[in-house]
Write a structure and sequence with these properties.
By secondary structure, the chain is an alpha+beta fold. It contains five helices and ten strands; from the N terminus they run αββββββββααααββ.
Length: 271
Amino acid sequence: MPELPEVETTLRGVSPWVMEQEILTVNVYNSSLRWPIPPEVNDLTGHIIKRVFRRAKYLLFKVSEKQHLLMHLGMSGVIRVVDANADLLKHDHFELVLSNGRALRLNDPRRFGCVLLVDGDHTEFNLLKKLGPEPLTDEFDGQWLKTHAYNKQVAVKKFIMNNHIVVGVGNIYAAESLFLSGINPKRAAKNISQDRYHTLAKNIKTVLSRAIRSGGTTLNDFKNTDDKPGYFKQKLLVYGRQGKPCLVCKTEIKNTLIGQRASCYCPNCQK
């Protein structure tokens, strides 16, 4: 499933092609995504895309002071910018035809993505208003984690994957960050010290930044906007390496379920 680095990669790939472009046509080929695409998207015709940005794993296209188009890639979605005359692919569900002769298309085989209109202040939109801070901002640090971990018995891995605590730390990046921090993913969030949370916050930033620079993580069917897979998988230290020797100490990497998610870790390096 596309995570924050994959969405950031998509954002960076899309932005140069769509910024300041007029929307000539809106085409909805299949409105049955996670939520039905509202017919009001057709009213975007004639608007100019003024800004493109990301909030958590949502992409927002600003078309006026009080209106944004919101898109989410779901489990398997890909946003591509192609020639407007290019043939549609199977599972191309939504398209914006732009004034530069290009088209922005959402391809989503599993249809867990979404295309919605946001009217008014986007920070108050129901999908966005309760989200935690962005992990690559100054707002997110060890003090933030320690404060919000107070009295929480939940496993630390599940804690940092909670979008109300911090957005965009998916399963892969949580596992990698905890390994670099020497923290066992099963430990209760409340039992992690302030110093270790400082280390963890720093490593979350490092892991996500590296993944963004590498174009995301190649898992299953993720591809970025130029139809190339991400390249971060080759650098993973623990995720998906159960049964293999730890790259640091040679201890066998273990796998456990935390919050119904596979959680790989080194029982020697992570305490």
